[in-house]
C-alpha cells in the first residue's frame, strides 16, 4: 500500500466528486456512504492495475489523500505486456521504470482523474466576470470534472456506447471489467478494473457488442499500446490537432474525440463543439435565441470568457441541466 497526498489549488470537494460519479452512468459507481472514494483502473503504463481509496479532510481546500496498490495485470498475455512503444525518444515512457517511477506515474494519474493536477485558484474569477458561471459555482461548490481513468477507457466507452442506450452500454462495460478485468480490494470492497489494452485486444467475443465494435476496440487497444492515447501527449498538443488525430481512430467521430480529450485526457480548457447537450444547457442559461443556440462557433465565442476552464464550466452546465431534468 502506497500513500499519496494532494493539496488542491483552489476549491475542491471530494464529496461533490463522489456525488457526481453516483449519477454518472458510465462509472457504475455504487459504494457505501463513508466518505471514501474507491477506484480501480488500469495504470497509464498499460501493464498494471491500480486499486485506490481517496479521502479528504474537512473544508474545500483540505488535503486529499489516496492509499493505492499497484499490481501487475497477470491476465494480460505475456507476449502483449511489452508491446507499448518505449524508447529513448519517448520520454513519457522511459525504457527502465523503477517502482518509484511507477508510483509517481500513478500519483499523477489519480491527480488527473480528479482534476487535481490543475491549478483551480483562478476558477472563482471566471464567476466574477460571468453571472451564469457564478451561479453554477454557487450550486456546485468544489465540483471539478471527474475524468475517465484514461483516454483509453474514455475511447472504449464511446465505442461500446455508440447507438445503444447508455444503461445498456454501462452494463456491457461493467461486464467486461467483471469478466476480464482484475479484481482488487479497496477499503473493504472488491472492485473490478476495466481490462488493460493487452487483454482487450485478445477478446474475440464480447456479449452485447457487434463484430465491428469488437474490431474497433482491438484497434483502440493497439493504438493505446503504441502510445497514441497518452494523456500528457494529447494535452500538450494544440486541441484542434489532438481532436483531428483522435478522429483517425476507427469509430471515433467529433463527439467521441471531444470526450476523449476533455474527460479522458483531462484537458481543462476545451469547449466541446460537438456536444449538443452542453449547447442546449448554454441556450437555457444564457437565454440565447435559436440561431445562436444552433451555431457552435457562436457558442464557442461565448465560452472564450470561461478560459482557462472551458471544460470545467461545460461540465457544470451539463450537471445542472441533468439535475433539473431529474428533479
Assigned CATH class: Mainly Alpha
> What is the overall shape?
globular
Strand element count:
6
Structural class: alpha+beta
Strand order of the largest sheet: 1-4-3-2
* Proportion of residues in β-strands: 5-15%
Series of secondary-structure elements, N-terminal to C-terminal: EHEEEHHHHHEEHHHHHHHHH
Helical content band: 40-55%
The largest pleated sheet is described as: 4 strands, antiparallel
Mean pLDDT: 91
- Write down the domain tally: 1
Contiguous uncertain segments of 5+ residues: 79-95
Radius of gyration over C-alpha positions, nearest whole angstrom: 19 Å
CATH superfamily: Hypothetical protein, domain 2
Explain this structure to me?
This protein has one domain: Endonuclease III, domain 1 (Orthogonal Bundle), CATH 1.10.340.30. It is 46% helix and 11% strand. The protein has helices at 14-22, 99-113, 123-129, 131-139, 151-161, 166-180, 197-200, 211-225, 231-236, 239-246, 254-264, 276-286, 290-293, 296-303, 310-326; strands at 2-6, 37-42, 48-56, 64-72, 183-186, 189-192. It has a 4-stranded antiparallel beta sheet with strand order 1-4-3-2, with helices on one face. It has a two-stranded antiparallel sheet with strand order 5-6. Strand 5 and strand 6 (189-192) form a beta hairpin. The longest helix has 17 residues, at 310-326. It is globular and about 55 Å long. It starts with a strand and ends with a helix.
Amino acid at each position: 500500500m502506497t500513500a499519496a497526498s494532494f493539496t488542491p489549488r483552489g476549491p475542491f470537494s471530494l464529496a461533490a466528486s463522489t456525488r457526481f460519479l453516483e449519477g454518472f452512468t458510465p462509472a457504475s459507481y455504487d459504494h457505501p456512504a463513508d466518505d471514501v472514494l474507491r477506484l480501480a483502473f488500469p495504470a497509464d503504463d498499460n501493464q498494471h492495475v491500480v486499486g485506490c481509496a481517496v479521502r479528504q479532510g474537512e473544508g474545500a481546500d483540505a488535503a486529499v489523500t489516496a492509499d493505492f496498490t499497484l499490481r501487475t495485470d497477470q491476465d494480460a498475455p505475456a507476449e502483449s505486456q511489452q508491446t507499448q512503444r518505449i524508447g529513448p525518444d519517448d520520454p513519457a515512457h522511459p525504457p527502465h521504470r523503477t517502482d518509484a517511477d511507477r508510483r509517481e506515474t500513478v500519483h499523477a494519474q489519480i491527480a488527473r482523474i480528479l482534476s487535481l493536477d490543475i491549478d483551480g485558484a483562478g476558477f472563482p474569477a471566471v464567476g466574477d466576470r460571468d453571472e451564469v458561471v457564478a451561479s453554477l459555482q454557487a450550486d456546485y461548490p468544489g465540483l471539478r470534472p471527474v475524468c475517465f481513468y484514461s483516454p483509453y477507457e474514455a475511447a472504449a466507452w464511446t465505442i461500446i456506447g455508440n447507438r445503444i442506450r447508455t444503461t445498456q452500454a454501462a452494463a456491457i462495460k461493467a461486464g467486461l471489467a467483471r469478466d476480464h478485468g482484475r479484481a482488487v480490494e479497496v477499503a473493504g470492497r472488491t472492485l473490478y478494473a476495466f481490462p488493460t489494452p493487452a487483454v482487450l485486444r485478445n477478446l474475440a467475443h464480447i456479449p452485447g457488442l457487434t463484430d465491428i465494435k469488437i474490431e474497433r476496440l482491438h484497434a483502440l487497444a493497439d493504438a493505446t499500446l503504441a502510445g497514441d492515447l497518452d494523456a500528457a501527449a494529447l494535452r500538450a498538443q494544440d486541441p484542434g490537432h489532438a481532436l483531428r488525430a483522435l478522429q483517425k481512430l476507427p469509430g471515433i467521430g467529433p463527439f467521441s474525440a471531444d470526450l476523449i480529450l476533455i474527460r479522458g485526457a483531462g484537458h481543462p480548457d476545451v469547449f466541446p463543439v460537438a456536444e449538443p447537450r452542453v449547447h442546449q444547457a448554454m441556450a437555457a442559461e444564457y437565454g440565447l435565441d435559436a440561431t445562436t443556440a444552433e451555431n457552435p462557433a457562436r457558442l464557442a465565442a461565448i465560452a472564450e470568457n470561461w478560459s482557462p476552464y472551458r471544460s470545467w464550466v461545460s461540465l457544470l452546465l451539463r450537471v445542472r441541466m441533468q439535475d433539473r431534468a431529474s428533479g
